[in-house]
## 1
Amino acid sequence: MEEVSNKQVVLKDYVNGFPKESDMLINTSATISLNLPQGSNALLVKNLYLSCDPYMRNRMTKTEDSYVPSFTPGSPIAGYGVAKVLDSGHANFKKGDLFWGFTGWEEYSIITAPESVFKIEHTDVPLSYYTGILGMPGMTAYVGFYEICAPKKGEYVFVSAASGAVGQLVGQFAKLLGCYVVGSAGTKEKNVGGKMLEAVLLNMRLHGRISVCGMISQYNLEQGDGVRNLFCLVSKRLLMKGFVVTDHYHLYPKYMEMVMPLIKEGKICYIEDIVEGLESAPAALVGLFSGRNVGKQVVVVARE
Amino acid sequence: MEEVSNKQVVLKDYVNGFPKESDMLINTSATISLNLPQGSNALLVKNLYLSCDPYMRNRMTKTEDSYVPSFTPGSPIAGYGVAKVLDSGHANFKKGDLFWGFTGWEEYSIITAPESVFKIEHTDVPLSYYTGILGMPGMTAYVGFYEICAPKKGEYVFVSAASGAVGQLVGQFAKLLGCYVVGSAGTKEKNVGGKMLEAVLLNMRLHGRISVCGMISQYNLEQGDGVRNLFCLVSKRLLMKGFVVTDHYHLYPKYMEMVMPLIKEGKICYIEDIVEGLESAPAALVGLFSGRNVGKQVVVVARE
């Protein structure tokens, strides 16, 4: 069995308030065998790109909430990423295959649920896109905009956190549909969240729809902001709908059919904020919550 | 022309905070002719029952909000009621017809938009029911429960303000459908509103639906409560939908078909809190906001 070093980003302990780089450590002493044991139906993979996503903050807190399980202190954190199969015990994957889905924040991982990851079919786009426009954030933009809001040409669209991985896509989808688009983003304090929602409610049009995929400004607060102006729901006949994108992954092929031509024809642009190396990962993740990133925050673990 | 005295409940001035009886006065000096002028297509009506509804508080404040127009200080206030036609200039109505719809808080009114009121076809139930279970509050319960929440047998239903005109019906509709029902009501402070919604959000089930027909606890506040726990919208995939019942009045015949047999077969019970005389109307209306009433608050102007 070939044993190699396997650098890892480990959560030291559960986090209160804003996460800090020092809440994580780089463990350089772990090793891993690059061959799966006989009879395993897992995948042994090399991680290429890791995705920094706001929802990960929720996993840094001990919670019984069924929404997303907590990380385990002392273990590597996990998240969406792009990885390459080095050894496969699963019929759907062979050595050399690429996929996107849940993996560890480490150089090599064992994927115990290969059914839950998406094999990458198109490699004529940057592979890192599968952490964003071609992955979970892209699907979030698609579901939140098209499925929940059911937008029509000429309607008015407001995008909160409009420079982030999801927001930048919603804004462009809306423009392509012929909507009038307003977005907010870019202050150091991430001008989103409770106060922004209050202002949005006052400015919504009759029969407006609000799709809610997350609330980044709330994740670091002991007790979240109270949101006023909810009476606008009644007077303006508004719909507010929360969703978790994983419930909608059956739409991924339909989304790919729509978005791939847009990318190839240059009709959509996608901004990434890429940092190099697992050592840079804690700062990149923490930076999400102070608005450091412009565009989708990606960590390169290895390019091949 | 026969001129008769026409007692009126007049709004003295716009209201701040909780409305008081003294915000209104009883005007006993007005008179009205009991015949319409030649060529009028209005209705001259005698008011029988008047409905005290929470949304009326919003009309006591000067607002540009399109939701519901403000009352005019110095003039009689208006609201839903049951009335009898004394003289008709409109083809759809004749002397002696009964209807429910918008009318004035006075003994006699001129209805200038007869198309907007509903002729009463069934008089084998208490006429006052047309201010409640057979009128706007009944339709609110019907639309909010069946149309917005699309409930299924066996689901769990929570009813806020469960003893009010709307809430008492939602609770019974839900029981009749085979749902498990929990309601809140009855404290002097009307244990509803922001804090209740916060608790409800924490206790909602996955894919729950919240229909919002009003926010009685907020109407007297300069600045409304902030509502926390909205992140539950995401983690529990909740839908929150506000509505204004007037948008759904085309469903009234369908609702009548459902609810009339329930009433006649005694399968639904409907609690009214009835006070006698226009003089009692200001106190009855104001009482809504301190939780004085038990069941639908009705004012009898005349029984025939």
## 2
Amino acid sequence: MSGIGDLQGTMFIAGERVTDGEGFFRAIDPATGTELEPAYPAAGDAHLDAAAGAAARAFGDYRRTSAEERAAFLRSIADGIDAAPGLVERVHAESGIAIERIEAERTRTTNQLRLFADVVLDGSYQGLRIDSGDPTRTPLPKPDLRHRFIPLGPVAVFGASNFPLAFSVAGGDTAAALAAGCPVVVKAHEAHPGTSEIVGRVIADAVQAHGLPAGTFSMIHGSSPELAVALVRHPAIAAVGFTGSRRAGLALVAAAQSRPIPIPVFAEMASVNPVFVFPGALESRAAEIGGGLIWSVLTGMGQLCTSPGLVFVPDNPEATTLLEAAAAALDTADAGCMLTPRIAASFDEGVARISAVPGVRLVARATEGSDAVARCTPTLFETDLSTFLAHREVLSAEVFGSVTLVVRVNDVSVDFDTVVDGLEGQLTASLQLEPEDHGLAGELVDRLELVAGRLVFNGWSTGLEVNDAVIHGGPFPATSAPSTTSVGTRAIGRFLRPVAYQNAPADLLPDALRDAAVGTWRRADGRFGDGAIGA
Amino acid sequence: MSGIGDLQGTMFIAGERVTDGEGFFRAIDPATGTELEPAYPAAGDAHLDAAAGAAARAFGDYRRTSAEERAAFLRSIADGIDAAPGLVERVHAESGIAIERIEAERTRTTNQLRLFADVVLDGSYQGLRIDSGDPTRTPLPKPDLRHRFIPLGPVAVFGASNFPLAFSVAGGDTAAALAAGCPVVVKAHEAHPGTSEIVGRVIADAVQAHGLPAGTFSMIHGSSPELAVALVRHPAIAAVGFTGSRRAGLALVAAAQSRPIPIPVFAEMASVNPVFVFPGALESRAAEIGGGLIWSVLTGMGQLCTSPGLVFVPDNPEATTLLEAAAAALDTADAGCMLTPRIAASFDEGVARISAVPGVRLVARATEGSDAVARCTPTLFETDLSTFLAHREVLSAEVFGSVTLVVRVNDVSVDFDTVVDGLEGQLTASLQLEPEDHGLAGELVDRLELVAGRLVFNGWSTGLEVNDAVIHGGPFPATSAPSTTSVGTRAIGRFLRPVAYQNAPADLLPDALRDAAVGTWRRADGRFGDGAIGA
């Protein structure tokens, strides 16, 4: 049993439970500011080297496991997380996240692991392609060419503070990497080491139960930038998954690029997730939009990469209705607890920066309902377009937490374009519209899709369906790799590269590329199908 | 008509023929060392800015062209290149490449453009995915999510010296980028400005004939590193395609990464393309392999990214047979002309570096048959494994040109692994084997696929079939982007990124993502198909 009482302050290095470290730290309950037992070791170079080296040694065998083996492994991890006693309570103690949200996050996390088990079994992620040869072609015979995507090698995953389950030890990056056939070395987030121990133990146990190489999974603790850089620069590491701040993400990217052999860093960073409210929508449901906005901004205390931080609204009388409804929603809402005292301090600084801009007006704040040390006071501002444009840099910068700025614009047909042309890359952009707005919206969609990874219509950007079609990515600085996604089944593609086999004898071909293989979709001689070749 | 006589020393900037520049240069006939008329202008900052700015302005309209329009445009370029008078002669004069090879390269180039026309029409490159919504799902409605891949924006393409047609102005990078919907700014290679003018004129004419935005295509001249860096750093440029040296490629990568908004550089760089000869193959066809090796090494005077520079052979008596056959093939072969005098000088230096290693033996040189100024003397060396391992760095470095080193190894089952574990990333690796070698080869294939992008069985790595299944890529330093290919239909993927549409009204969805769309393969609710949704 792995309840809270069992926490032993361990790292997991290739199947070994390691409790020694270069210094120790404890999690802090952000509600009370008190330290939580047990103490956790910070990894030193030897720990890191042991974990990364074991991952490199495990890679050869792990990548050759069958789809069935990897799927069963992923499902065992999901089952283990669902069953882990004390997990939800420890997440709450370490993060201040509301219990019902943690339960939902746990469901998302385990569903995600099971989804990647399905992806492995489906097999189409391998991108199989075949062009049959023709030895009789003149002047030169046509070679037989086939390719598939293979795993890159050991992946370093950095746990994120804001999703202690879904973007951490067994989160999306880990699920995608393990599904791809890559061993994983997790650097657990220092804000939730106990959560990480519980989940790490589930994975380590599953590695053992399924007879996989011990180095398939390791998890180390530590909070120093030097440790993070050393992990990214370790020669055994082949790719990096990260979700967090722009500053930290760019530091990892720089570290990866300065290696003798550069490696990709899939960093998901800052986004303000702009919302555009069209005149028809404003006219017909201003109050509903105002209330929905606050519901979205309050979700997870705004500590979501998709939290809407900027809302552009026509300066009609209904804009006031929208703001009044939003203010009313805030008045009846509670302040809350943030992930860490440091994040709460950053939030307060960010709110103060917005507040200090002349021409920005405070509309409402939710001040009641929390006496947390890491307290978040959800805040609503408004301003006009000229103020926004004059102070674009500070007003467009992400403030992590429940705060949003409504910007009144005069002429939607011109001003929305002006706004979009100056936007940095975004994870999402949202449109509130009615059929009569579609004409105007069509042009905005054309521009917005160049700026954002996901366009949301008549909904809110928070909340992410994890499936085949979702994209959680976007142009820099939303991510460091705009051609990829960190959520959804396509996320596996980040950890793969293609290899072609020319005129390979059948017995030296990977099974999935042989003529007789069935059941996996592939493109053969220009046609898609899941049957045998020549059958 | 665009024969040699018509050459006017022009750049093409958004439909304008530009003949002024910051200084002028002429091509040099590598056979004679004489300058070729006319003089070509070197682009200055204003030219570059005009070309990149026009590309940015063209992007919006060009990316919205229909598949039929882009396919017709690509086919017009192909037809124009096939029909361009004087093209083959000018390529020959500027590059020293043999006429029949130029004709073959022209065919490959125009076939490649037509292949990408087919790719555009096929449409599956868009990676369409749909997950239908379910408004009745509890506790939360399931959103409708759909995604497609859209073009990145203007692409900078650097012409390569060694393929004046297939990897230059209208080469693979340009074809893939234009197919994707990206405008292209070509920096023509300074070794073949006349060839570039002829091909550039064909593209510029096609842009006009098809009524496309003028900035869809521009081509500038110049040879300074500063110009190259300025192009990569121009804010309008969204991605870069490059084939050439490691030094130049890494300089472009560094420039791209130092931008305020970093962009991807798809650089194909150094590779020595190792060959592994297994005992059974050596026993049954040593002389054939020796002759085939020299044929491959002589192809294009070894100035191919896939030229085999290292051959590992069991130290059996038949190894001598292989070397004798190779030496005989070299003895009857001719020396030849290289692309430029500078490349010939680099080749001589590289050969001298190998020659200077104690323990390396010169087997044969082809000294007759050419009095070119940029003369290549094809050369065959041999050595033993201990010498190779002791001087690994110099003996594993690519020498661009017709030179190869045969390394005798004692124990294939151990020594091949030792060799592979120390290899840098490669574009290709080749295996010569017979059925009795398959047991040993299986393990080597496992290792080689982690090192190379294409494995060739019982054939030679030179010569590349351009189709769906080919991969021309590989781990660093073979390329800067190992998850991609620069040849074959997948090359289009380099210039795309995904965008998801959540709950989009049908009339605001891209056509290909609407329920009723037919004829393009997409993955809808977990199933592949090319029919309508719900039909």
## 3
Amino acid sequence: MPNSNDTRTLAKDERRFLRDTFGEGDALFDAESTCVFGADAYRNFAPPLAVVRPAGQEQVRELMAWAQKVRMPIYVRARGTNVVGSCVPRPAGVVVSTLKMNRIIDVDAEDFVAVVEPGVITGDLQKHIEKQGLFYPPDPASVKISTIGGNVATCAGGMRALKYGVTREYVLGLTAVLPGGEAIHPGGRTHKNVVGLDLVRLLVGSEGSLAFISDITLKLLPKPESTASLLVGYVQLEQALSAARAIFAAGILPAAMEFMTRETLAAVGKVMTAPWPDTTEAALLIRLDGSRDALAADLKRLKNVLEKTGPASLDTGLGPEEEEPLWEIRRMINPASYQIAPDKISDDITLPRAKILECLVKIREVGRGAGLTILTFGHLGDGNIHVNIMHDASDPQERGRAVDAKERVLALTLSLGGSLSGEHGVGLAKAAHVHKQLGPVERRLMAGVKHAFDPLGIMNPGKGW
Amino acid sequence: MPNSNDTRTLAKDERRFLRDTFGEGDALFDAESTCVFGADAYRNFAPPLAVVRPAGQEQVRELMAWAQKVRMPIYVRARGTNVVGSCVPRPAGVVVSTLKMNRIIDVDAEDFVAVVEPGVITGDLQKHIEKQGLFYPPDPASVKISTIGGNVATCAGGMRALKYGVTREYVLGLTAVLPGGEAIHPGGRTHKNVVGLDLVRLLVGSEGSLAFISDITLKLLPKPESTASLLVGYVQLEQALSAARAIFAAGILPAAMEFMTRETLAAVGKVMTAPWPDTTEAALLIRLDGSRDALAADLKRLKNVLEKTGPASLDTGLGPEEEEPLWEIRRMINPASYQIAPDKISDDITLPRAKILECLVKIREVGRGAGLTILTFGHLGDGNIHVNIMHDASDPQERGRAVDAKERVLALTLSLGGSLSGEHGVGLAKAAHVHKQLGPVERRLMAGVKHAFDPLGIMNPGKGW
């Protein structure tokens, strides 16, 4: 095991190795230039011993061979959009930024694959391939700023997961460099593959704990011709959830089905003119996709279903331009939330669908008990609810109530058969809670799997399970 | 490791344990009653030491505790539809039939999950849930006779994989009983879950090599309102492949896109009246699904695309009744193949899509060189091609040519960046070839993962990687 305290420093020859391998400009040591690599969007900080920026596979292999030899903790990261502290270098170690490994190596409109380095921003990749009529569905909210490497490491989800599934479903193959420097290439360019154990999907979502993922082969789909969206407001929360049920019962599987409850609507209402009446308790934001004529038929059908659910408002957008204002509302949730309080504890619990209403009502009670506003919104379609506990962290007493509220929300989630995370992962934020969801035998197996990849425990230690 | 020779016999106390645990009727020992459990559809046989039929979780745990203690190889199976010999009990051990564990425990139209025991026939489950407007997409050709446990163990694919993905995408959670009798319950009823390493997908497709999967929680979708199918014939193979490209380029992702080349069409033509002209070199069989009105629009659009590809014939079926004769053709391939020769070696290679034409042409050359008819057909959409090398195995010289042709096809597949199996798995049939696809480090990692689950190597030994 690496040193689990933070007293480790970089020996002279260790520093020399990093400088020689990566060059002056891409091996950083001083606190001023390394400190921004010590935190991610979870805002928890630990000082990196060094930051290096490999430019290609060969440097990655050298780094990983060296790290194993000197038992140096390795923290792979890109844009640091992770919200659970998965990128925080604690215990002390070397942070590896993938941002110089940002080539789109290949996009093949016949094979329907893209081969990319981990530092490519997912939104950039999407724009690039969509010009060729190709489509990469996973769309985490961070898609414009997060990288594909991070998306793969966390098995990122997003709005379109309802119809298209999560990142896991789109990784056909990858190169992973193990501690010690050996590289494996499980999977490949074929859309199906069942030869041997599924190392590809084992690496997807492993939060940097097994190996350094140094290139990724993604499955692409034909790009649907068009999209259409609906924003539907209800004066009762129950109505919104009944509407979701009615949509599914009609055999409709939307590309996305987001929702916001009254606290979230109120926050958004503070930063923009809301298209829903004041009495609105919950809103659904639904997107369909498909070919233009089929979409028109589907939209009509969906509206017929929704009109029977007693909506207080119904706005429709046909095609990206008309839809944009509706999705702008969804994107405004995060900035708007800070109108409520300066700090948040955010969770992305996931529930069996039938338990969503009960959970939302009880989360509201938790907020009331704590004297805090809790925003709930997210991916209703797959039961993945974002819970933002708004508070002022500079008030220790309020911070304590917020932390306590988080504990209650997580306990509630597990009592309803839910999962502590649907797409963010464990990181530091949930490390102390994992044993409540995973049994000791499961965790022992995970440790055994980890040991097969990383026997000395140098890959992103201190996180996860 | 268990004895790797086949000389092991059952000790008296071992026999007694099995009889006491499962009762007279469900612990079989004599050759007459156990012999049918010694083979699967691969038609390779090894005599079981015993066959037991657990009726529930408790018996499974007792069995697995005992098996670990006495280092007894355990071969879990159901209907034995496996075509690569994954169910063959060699080295000698105990075969466990899951056919008495065939309860549909729960179908929940709100959660959109089904909880089932492994012995449920997948087609029966589908019929059962479709009555409630629910949909379980994976549809291996064996769906009416194979079980969900086997489908999970092999990560079964099927026709609808193109649009809906494979079995892996639908397993939300499961119970797995480890050697030693401990049970784990990774995953659950939530549609998303990223807490810890992905043990669920590691078990899916593991071909019985890690643990006994004793119940399964499946993700369900809303059932599409209707379906439509097209059968399109071409006088050139290239045209059929161009047509597939044109469909994708138009942004259409069919639910299924099957194909048959001339050898397969000729075989089918021997057992039924073919709807295509004699000059047909290749045919595509395409299915769309969706709501009725959208489907009409999509079908029109698809026809517009296809009319520009110069088809020699085009038959359409709207709704299950009209479609049935078209899909009957697809189902007739297997029985029709025996009109060509009494035996087959079958493979399910998978290729990067752009390599399909080259591969088909070269497989034909392999057949010509061997003086054998090779049928090619299958899941064009995801590059998963079934290759049936027809021959008369009673002629040793012809059998030799068939075996040699198989070697050539597999080498060709790998040279084109393909995979040895898209959905059948490795089993016995490909065990000797796996090292050509998987590198030594990958195989070492797989062995490490296996060791974490099954340290004594009692789970389905002698197969796989």
